[in-house]
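#struct-help
A.M.: can someone run this one for me? Single chain, 549 residues.
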Amino acid sequence: MLRRPWPERHHLNKPLLSPSPSRLSDSTVTERAFRLALSGIVLVAVAGAGLDLMEVDAAQYASMSRDMVGSADWTHLYHRGQDYLDKPPLLFWTAALSYELFGVANWSYKLPSILFAFLGMFSLYRFTALYHGTDIARTTTLMFGSSAAFLLMTNDVRCDTILTGSVITAIWLGMAWIEQRRWWQLIGCGVAIGAGMLAKGPMGLMAPGLAIGGHVLLARRWDVLRDPRILVLLPVIALLLFPMCLGLYEQHGAHGVRFYFWEQSFGRLTGENRWKDDSTPFFFTHELPWQVLPWTPFVLVGLWYSVLGAMRRNLSEYASLSGALLVFIAISFSQFKLPHYLYVALPLFMIMGGLAFHRHMRPWLRVLDRWVIVLLWGVAMLITAWSFPDGRWPFVVLLVLVPLVLLLLRTQRLLATFWVMVTIGCTINAHIYPQLLRYQANAQAGKWAAERGLGKGRFYGMQVSGTALDLYAGHAVQWLSDVQEARPVIAPGVVIYTDPVHRARLIEAGFAPVKEIELPDYRVQLLGIEMLLPAERARVLEKRYLMCF
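D.P.: on it. Structure tokens below:
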């Protein structure tokens, strides 16, 4: 029964539709090994939960959620006291609720989104088991949970993490309803679609619609469209969206509602949305390979065979292929693209990777997989020992585990690759990111001010600001444009946070600080190769100053 806890065996672990005959992989993950592997994914997420939030988005969303705490108004969104119209409210609601329950902290902001990410793993497992069996479901789930994208989406938390978990949940429950016609599946699908729309707008409906609709079309399941029970989706979704729509109308009028349902998403295709960049439609073709690391060879091979299978009409299900490709194409033609827009389609790509691992393993693919492991392991050891050598324990751990990985490569290829990624993930979250985030000057300055109780009227930013500055200072830090604005506020006990140019102007105007603290600054979210090279690091670091008067 579907009611039994994950990942226990149930009758749906036998595929509903028999897959085409193919050679199975000799790497089968036992239930015990699967549960142990899941604990490894949890360990990586826990290791990153307490890290400082990165600018710009995560720190901004966290500060907005903090402002909600204790407020009776959760239907209207504000940023620095001004009306906010950009993202839907679910991330802010869940983070504010987590703050209410556990207090304001880095990990409590990330917790709801991390839970949604693990909900996505659960739903991916159930959907894959529904059509492809338990072995492929376990493989697919571990691939997704140990991918580079999963590491990022549970660390640099934005709206897309909740969206990804909601969409794959909607696809699983929608496809389960097509096969079994149980009320809870249909209602759950509607709730998941509503959650996705509350997280990132119409994409929460479009992505599952393209996946499930593609299956209905290619599998010729016209009986689904003739079933009147499908109409239940409309009131379920509308009920969930009503508080948000009411708040949008009250705060922004009809424009707010139109912005949400059209301009925010579809406006990026038509050019109505103000966000534009110079990226080409091929932007995500080079984003996909690194986001699905270390499983890139299997995902690409699985995608190829799935396309061939769709042309021959012999796939067990078409939702994974249609959802992945159609969403990929849709976001590729957006006039504004960011790497995390692709997260929503990654669980579906991973299904094709799992199928390739079990059904289309070839000698050359084994060799390529081995080289990917060696390359990633080598890069991790190099960065740990050379780029950020403070503390040798991560390097020692990576070195000691080499024999174990070599042993697993001979017996359990999937688990060998998986545990390499878990080890690298723990090293990144527990060793590399903590050192990188020391260079996020806005966060360091905000925490310094908060530790000394510098509230409004005593702590200012002069031509320097940032969402992390506001978040960690505990308030919206007042902006000073020039020396003339700074003149009337400078007094004993006042601190001005600024850059080298405006520091020099203050000193030239006769405002020499009694104490000064220099902070190195780097946009960690936009990590480049120069930052990883010790000899080049000083060249890319900027300077910020805390001028204490």
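A.M.: thanks! Strands lie at 78-79, 82-83, 459-462, 478-480, 495-498, 515-521, 542-548.
D.P.: also worth noting: Residues 515 and 548 are 5 Å apart (CA to CA).
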